[in-house]
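Sequence only, no structure available. Ideas?
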Amino acid sequence: MARDPETGQFGVAVQSHFFSVGPIVPWAEAGVGAVATQAFAEASYGPRGLEMMRGGTPAGRALGVLVFSDKEAERRQVAMVDALGHVAAHTGERCIPEAGDRQGDGVSVQANMMLKPTVPDAMLAAYESATGDLAERLLAALDAAEADGGDIRGKQSAALLVVRGRPSDKPWADRVIDLRVEDHPQPLEELRRLTVMRRAYDAVERAEQAALEGDMETAAAEYAKAEAGVGDNVEASFWAGVSLAGAGQEEQARALLAKSFARHDGWKELLRRLPAAGMFPDDSALIERLLASD
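Reply:
I predicted one. Tokens follow.
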């Protein structure tokens, strides 16, 4: 769980041998902070901690108040980071060994039921030495925990939540990444795959906006990024082709649309329906030429 000092983003990443850990452990709010509640987890630490930090209570005091009022505090493991990057953590004395936490500059790592006591140290070292954005560094910490032995029970689910540093007037858009792996034999691998795809779809959105503004050079570059990240998913190829065709770049569009059309005929039918929705020129000749792309 961490705050990025450069972007102000807050993030929480978790892996566990527990079904659907995503709705329980990670909590974060743009401009406010983040909470990770685990080990005999009490989910209310998340919203209550964020509420207190939203009102200006520092992370340490917020955590202290909640722990003091919790009759099962000695079983809990919780960490918080506030808008100033102050971190606080609690690992109860009755958490199942091996359990521990470590803190760095704007970051706290926690682990319980680990095979080895060295897992928190490995996590913190990996986070602090990792490159890339906040999501990449959080994932690096999880990889290090697993490499050092991980959960004594094994692995099952994982989650990654990253929010913006400053809130916007569109709270639904303040979540940069919100991904969950509910049940998987390799949850960290799956979480990374989904993270790559999330970034690819972000590129699609940037490409669509650029296309609407008539900046086809930027649109083409963003669509190229998207295609590199979606694997065998042809969604990006289809919408890239649609945007380019609508902007008059028919040759480039045909090559992209062919990938979708080769998958199944539903993509062809979708293209035929777009003019009625105002999402493509009502040009039957153009549509027929594009449909012949395969």
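The chain has a mean pLDDT of 94.
Hope that gets you unstuck.
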